[in-house]
Design goal:
With about 450 residues, this protein is an alpha/beta fold. It has 2 domains: about 5-100 and about 250-455, Zn peptidases (Aminopeptidase), CATH 3.40.630; about 105-235, Aminopeptidase i, Domain 2, CATH 2.30.250. The protein has helices spanning about 10-30, 35-50, 55-60, 175-180, 205-215, 255-270, 300-310, 315-325, 375-390, 410-415, 440-455, and strands at about 50-55, 70-75, 80-85, 95-100, 105-115, 120-125, 140-145, 150-155, 195, 230-235, 240, 250, 275-280, 325-330, 335, 355-360, 365, 395, 405, 420-425, 425-430, 435-440. The strands form 4 sheets. A 9-stranded mixed sheet has the order 1-2-3-13-4-14-20-16-18, with helices on both faces. Strands 8-7-10-5-6-9 form a 6-stranded antiparallel sheet, with helices on one face. A 5-stranded mixed sheet has the order 11-12-22-21-15. Helix 2 (about 35-50) packs parallel to helix 6. The two termini are about 40 Å apart.
Amino acid sequence: MEVNNKWLCYNEEQKNLAYEFCEGYKDFLSNSKTERESIKNAIALAEANGFRNINDLIKNNEKLNPGDKVYAINMNKAIVLFVIGEEAFEKGLNIVGAHIDSPRLDLKCNPIYENSGFCLLDTHYYGGIKKYQWVTTPLALHGIVCKKDGTKIDFVIGENEDDPVFAITDLLPHLDKDKQNRKEVIEGEELDLIVGNIPDKDEKENPIAKNIMNLLNELGIEEDDFLSAEIEVVPSGRARDFGLDRSMILGYGHDDRSCAYSSLKAILGVKNPKRTAVCLLVDKEEIGSVGATGMKSKFFENMVAEVMNLFEGYQELKFKRCLNHSCMISSDVTAGYDPVWPAPMNKKTEAFLSRGISFNKFTGHRGKSEANDANPEFIARLRKICEDNKILFQFNEMGKVDAGGGGTIAYILAEYGMEVIDAGIPLLSMHAPWEVASKLDIYESYRFYDVFLNSFE
């Protein structure tokens, strides 16, 4: 028995609380497989808990007061939520920030083609994946099609029990010798989905593709609508309890929706904070936090300026002081120690499942390149609030020094001069179609984010 396994610290009541919290998380994870779905569900939870859209306040020239709750969205792929505190903004904010994008496949803008009796869809992978993991597994399509007349068609195919699913096929072992000797067993251009086999009897050229387009026409989708569509290919199926003891969860997108949900739930419960509490959920972390909806965009600072203006009036110097004096938790997952694959890991410094939220002083790779390296003064204060509130926690690095590494949005926020550290949930099989997380770690992360937002000074 592992003496550090923190389930030993839980009584039956605490275990039940963790399991209950994770039932809500499983629903969120199962219904939030894309960024847009994550934002839609986040907005529903926020509005049910009294948050208002900042655009309504700006339009009506309303002022904000301590205790008020507002949110702002960015292109339906990022959201920031504020609970207004008693102190002036220049004293700083308490921020938890996660990302809601996950590795996946995207349909290309001209995806449909026919080959050798099949209709296929051409894809381009998004984020860091092991391509071979995406073959011969049931896949679903989640998408939005924007038509020239301004209408939008949202659709999901492959999640309901009576829906068809899709897959990328593979060779049988008997014929696979040459492929197995390649540097990459599966290459990016081979990640194409088979979506149909029946021809349109009246069509002579590409009859199978024509039949598939006939079916898509029933949804209102024409072939040229792929040009203005965003269709993601993700694993089909709901998040499930994992293990005979149901202590873990198997699901797609734990990275980073486990931390996103925990952070979101934490801010929903904030009532009257001393410092303004902020939850930030962004897009594009898996490809460098770039673009209009990534952390490197100006969305976050623009929204801080807007909220500051509604609360006390905008002043540039005070705005800069606000960002400089803020404290931020980059709530992102980390690699959990895997007993089956121990070679790239240093057991003394890795995160373990079921030992609580994991703090990572720095991310980056090898010689701490491209890392945020948290200050020990800040870490000491976080240790104290964990111990004072009996929050279970651990500290980790991610792999052996020269084995690789990783990154989060932490370094981007740190550029404002604020205190930042990574703290999140260890995973097994990170970036695979199905990842594994511990219910204890998810719950303890929520508890930490809750205390940080409510009381950290």
